Structures are given as structure tokens and as C-alpha cells.
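Bumping with the actual sequence this time:
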Amino acid sequence: MRGRLIPDADRPGVANPAVAAVRTIAAYLRAIAQRMRRRRQASVFSDELCGLDDRMLHDLGIDRSEIGSVASEMAGLTDATRLRALLAPKLAP
């Protein structure tokens, strides 16, 4: 019986290829949904930061040209390299 959704009895430890395909597709769709959520969140962060005046941005340590980068880092779309760069001089002896 080839269409069953349980592990093959004659091949222990090997799942049915249909189950593996469904799991792969589900994982792919979850990754897409997570990426979309993060992009939406980055857009919200960016909109909020753009609404601040230059003095407030300066108080936060952000230049207006960095808003896109900061929003991407805050949403988890990119590595937080900006934070590491800011902390590096303080960590050096």
C-alpha cells in the first residue's frame, strides 16, 4: 500500500515520502509567514522612527539615514551588527 501516511513497515525508520514532502512544504510556508511578519514589523518600526524629529533620533543614537538598518535589526531581519559596533570601543581595553 503506497499511499499510506505512516512509516513503511518494510523499511523501519524511513517515513513515507508523502509525509516528508508535506512536512517540508509546511516548514517552507512557516518560514515564509515568519519572514512576512518580520518585514511587517520592520515597516512599523521604520514608520515610527521616521515620525521622530532629528533631535529625538539623535538622543536615541540614530541618524535618519540609519532608520532602515535599525528597523531591520529590531525586527530580526538582519544581524545586530550595529549594536556590536557601538559596544566594541567600550569592550576594548
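The C-alpha cells above came from a reply further down the thread. DSSP finds four helices and no strands in the chain.
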